[in-house]
Amino acid sequence: MTVHNIRVGETKRGDAADGALVEAVGGRLSRVDGPAKITGAARYAVEQQLEGLAYAVLVESTIASGKVRAIDSKAAEAAPGVLEVLTPDTIISLRTAADWFGTPPPDKPYCPLARDITFSGQHVAAVVAETFEQAVAAAAMVKVSYGETPAIVDLSDGKAGDGIPIDAMTKEWGDAAAAFASAPVRICAAYNTPREYQAPMEPHGLIAHWEGDHLTVWEPSQWLDGMARTYAEWFGVPFENVRLVSPYVGGGFGSKALALGHGAIAASAAKMLGRPVRLVMTRAQTFTGYGGRAATRQTVTIGADHDGKIQSIVHRGVNETSIEGMWVEPLGSVTSIMYATPNFSSKQNVVRVNSVVPGAMRAPGENPSAFGIESAIDELAYEVGIDPLEIRLRNYAEQDPHAKKAWSTRQLREAFAAGAERFGWARRTPEPRSMRDGNHLIGWGVAAGTYPVRRAYGEAIVRILADGSVEVESSSIDMGQGTYTILAQTAAETVGVSGDDVVVKLGDSRFPRAGVSGGSRLAGVMTGAVYKAATSALDQLIGLAISDPRSPFHALQANTLVVAKGRITAPRGDGPDVSIAELLKSVGRVHIEATGDTMPANSSAEDRYKNYTTIAMALPHTEGDYSRHSWCAHFVEVRVDEDFGTVRVSRVVSALDSGRLYNPKLAESQWKGGIIMGIGQALLEEGIVDRRHGRIVNNNLADYLVPTNADIPDIETISVGIPDPHSSVLGGKGVGELAIVGIAPAIANAVFHATGKRIRDLPITLEKLI
Amino acid sequence: MTKMTKIPVHLDINGHHHDLQLEPRVTLLDALRDRLGLTGTKKGCDHGQCGACTVHVDGERVLACLTLAAQAEGRTITTIEGLAREGELHPVQAAFLKQDAFQCGYCTPGQIMSAVACIREGHAGSDDEIREYMAGNLCRCGAYPHIVAAVRQAALEVAS
Questions:
Q1: What's the CA gap between A559 and B58, in Å, rounded?
Q2: Where are the domains of chain B?
Q3: What is the mean pLDDT of residues A680-685?
Q4: What DSSP string runs through A433-474?
Q5: Is the Cβ of B111 closer than 8 Å to some Cβ of chain A?
Q6: A393-454+622-768 against A456-613: fold identical
Q7: Which residues does chain A have within 8 Å of residue B38's beta carbon, measured at their own beta carbons?
Q8: Does residue A153 carry a pLDDT above 50?
Q9: Is the dihedral of CA B90, B91, B92, B96 positive or negative?
């Protein structure tokens, strides 16, 4: 049994805040999985110790376009310890699986090892050996010969073209072109973002183990049920035969939601050898084994009055996708809702290049979209001579300009006010290059961010056990968001026991199902499901206490009872005072169990399967009467060395509206993490393509620069959210993705204020400033 | 192809003695994780770029992925599993929990081992110094400000 099972034992260390009990919803309970993580006891997916484990290592294409002519694996096969060399010719045949929408796949075989090469780093072979060292050595002996054809290396390649229009991305109202043409103030600029990589500290990998036609996969996963479905479809076994186990996830940021080619390879090898097989990508392979954020190009034109009031926005976007796959990074997502405008037009194309298909990375769409519009409105502010904060308030959208619906909650005005106050924005002098400290030019910038509230349905089991403790089970996961902790808080508060008496079990697809942990939806979905299951368990407990003839409360004829701190009493305090354990013993029950789900009441088994294994049933954020989003305002100070052009972020104050926070201590950590990833995006991160070979050359953590501790200043976050009943059962909105949105433009705007140079091409590196 | 010879390697880890038969090319990191089941030490890059595999060898912080197991013979190795004494968390571990200095937890053992050494080296005198001397341990979740707070807190506790 590999399931994480750690008791809430750290309650007393937490700090009470906002009057909430530390261990209740809204309390600052420290992570319940923390003790395991700080002592090294937390065993991540690929760290399971299995008898007879064999080790697989991937061989990848060294060209970006062409065909594999031949694979010479003789030397590798003869190398010490080698058990198998998998090539397109030797690997077992799989079936094509449905995509994440559940779209029925084409009826053709799937081979995770490629003969036709469409990007550098594509899996072409794999070597399995008795030890990791033997597999690494033998993989280097596999000789692959290619017939190479010219590659489209990136968006700026002359062969790339204008791409494919994505009509579903078109958003238009009014007459944007005419209004722009007649506007007294007009700005137009192009904004670019490069390829960026999630780079979670735990590399992707798995252990696959077959027992008959049952497959167990230990794999870091943001979506156990979705990945289990994919494995089941690949191998043609029932969904129930596949068990995904993912007790801890060492970071995902969007990259660990789907079963990928390396998983198919490892599970095939395990089946072929009849042994458990471990395959972990090298760090270099994580840059091509799955997609990072697509490179993007946007043009934003704004027509406005002299007083800065926007009359028209025309937005055109392009993102790269792969030769065979389709990834759309929705670039008009923030552009279309952040500001009120009577006329609007946004369109988007995707361009095929020889790259791995790009994927989800923290706030896909909203993140680059905000870089465009939040830079452009800053440019407009300078054009009309209005404070960048004031121009945002002047164009404040009182309702969703696109959906034409009321916001469920939008504390953005409050965010601007709180952030500006704390940052000291009023002391800013408006002219570029007007603030200085010795050799450092000081710049202050502001930008807003937003992320939609993605909603879905969840399911959980809550058990009240004979000893009075409470157990929660769900196949959802914790990759650092704090799922273990907030679900413990939800169950503790709802049932009426102390946090110490709750055990949360996650990360096993045998538990009640859960949809994808992505799009900042998990906390809202799962606290709702646990609340419902816990309420049902509590109702059963009170029902037993009132009606069972053996109950000490039976004679009381009460309508209801109170459960608090694990003890049951009558509302007026008269009558017995017994523990949950005593009550269960008196009525002869071993436990009480309740399954709760938030699915519509008449949902079929098919609906449920579809809900948990695809994203087809996710609820639109504009469903019904409201438009639901999280909001934030970032205030940033940069210091730019005038001689060297180096930029350092020296201060960040962000005010954020994520609705009600289930645990402020953990939410603040996620916000700060988003801000820090945004600092990396603004100043450091860029996948650099070798134009001769179409290859990412900085495919390691020394050359693909993610922020280090020394790059990060003090960061202050302020919660301005209020409970939003339209967004989730307990009133929260999304946390994890919100804070990265708007950081890069806030920094670019601060750099402009410091230097007078407008950098529209991320990252903002020194050569762009000197 | 001749079979690679295994050599005897004797390792002293967290106060326990281990006799292993290893190929000379086995790193300390893989010996810990794959041979001894000590998986608290993490593999993030295998190239000495991320710091997740930081352990102490003779009291100094060392990257286990760039150290051959054979190189550690005769030295005293401490991993994250050996930091707590008799069930008592090390002050750095306790501070990491209190300050929420981690999220996914994967870089955390390396951060903690680095932090213990950083304090011992006398490099925790100011926030800027902590940032500089903890810069070799990457954290993609972005817990840096809380790591600084935890190291600051633990440094004061260790000093008092």
A1: 67
A2: 7-82, 91-159
A3: 98
A4: T-EEETTEEEEEEEEEEEEE--B---EEEEEEETTS-EEEE-
A5: no
A6: yes
A7: 40
A8: yes
A9: positive
User: What are the sequence ranges of the domains in chain A?
Assistant: 46-150+202-287, 393-454+622-768, 456-613
> What pTM, to 2 d.p., does this model score?
0.97
**How many CB atoms are located within 10 Å of the residue A576 CB?**
18
Contact assessment for residue A78 and residue A266, using Cβ atoms and an 8 Å cutoff: no
Min CA distance, B129 vs chain A (Å)?
A: 9
Which residues are CB-contacts of A762 (< 8 A; sequence separation ≥ 6)?
A192, A193, A194, A371, A681, A682, A685, A686, A744, A748
pLDDT digits (tens, 9 = 90+) for A591-621: 999 999 999 989 999 999 999 999 998 899 9
Question: Which region, left, alpha or beta, applies to residue A125 given φ > 0 means left and ψ of -120 to 50 means alpha?
Answer: beta
Residue A574 has pLDDT above 90, yes or no: no
Burial class (CB in 10 A: 0-12, 13-18, 19+), A274: exposed
Q: Could you write out the three-class secondary structure of A161-209? A: CCCEECHHHCEEECCHHHHHHHCCEEEEEEEEECCECCCCCCCCEEEEE
Nearest to A715 among B80, B102, B145 (CB): B145
Residue A657: its H or E element: strand A647-657
ipTM: 0.98
Longest dimension (CA), chain A: 86
Provide the CATH topology of domain A456-613: Aldehyde Oxidoreductase; domain 4 (3.30.365)
Strand ranges inside A272-373, DSSP E: 277-280, 296-304, 310-321, 343-352
Q: pLDDT band for position A636 (50/70/90)?
A: very high
Those residues whose C-beta lies under 8 Å from the C-beta of residue A764, and which sit 6 or more positions away, are: A647, A682, A683, A747, A748, A751
In angstroms, the CA A404 to CA A347 distance is 19
Can you list the positions of beta strands (E) in chain B? 7-13, 16-22, 54-57, 60-63, 76-78
CATH number 2.30.40.10 is the correct assignment for the domain at A393-454+622-768: no
CATH of domain B7-82: 3.10.20.30
| Residues of A designated catalytic | 737
Please tell me the CATH code under which domain B91-159 is placed. 1.10.150.120
Domain A46-150+202-287 has CATH 3.30.365.10: yes
Mutate to test the interface with A, among B106, B108, B113 (most CBs of A within 10 A): B106
Q: What is the DSSP string of A745-760?
A: HHHHHHHHHHHS----
From the list B36, B23, B43, B128, the residue with the least C-alpha distance to B77 is B36
Residues in contact with A17: Cβ distance below 8 Å, sequence separation at least 6, in sequence order = A27, A28, A664, A665
Which chain A residues contact residue B3 at CB under 8 A? 80
Instruction: Write phi, then psi, for A641 (nearest 5 degrees).
Output: -70, 120
- Chain A stretch 168-207, residues whose beta carbon is closer than 8 A to a beta carbon of chain B: 198-203
A666 contact residues in B (CB cutoff 8 A): 100
CA quadruple A322, A328, A334, A335: dihedral positive or negative? positive
Measured between alpha carbons, how far is B61 from A767 in angstroms, rounded to an integer?
A: 35
> What span, in angstroms and rounded, lies between the C-alpha atoms of A85 and A129?
9
Residue B124 sits at the vertex; the CA angle it makes with B122 and B126, to the nearest 5 degrees, is 125
Are A135 and A59 a contacting pair, CB within 8 Å? no
Rounded-to-integer distance, Cα A348 and Cα A660, Å: 34
For B49-86, the pLDDT digits (tens) are 999 999 999 999 999 999 999 999 999 999 999 999 88
Question: Can you give the pLDDT at residue A132?
Answer: 97
Given a contact cutoff of 8 angstroms between Cβ atoms, the answer to whether A747 and A42 are in contact is: no
User: Exposure of A562 by Cβ count < 10 A (0-12 exposed, 13-18 middle, 19+ buried)?
Assistant: middle
Pairing of strands A116-117, B54-57: unpaired
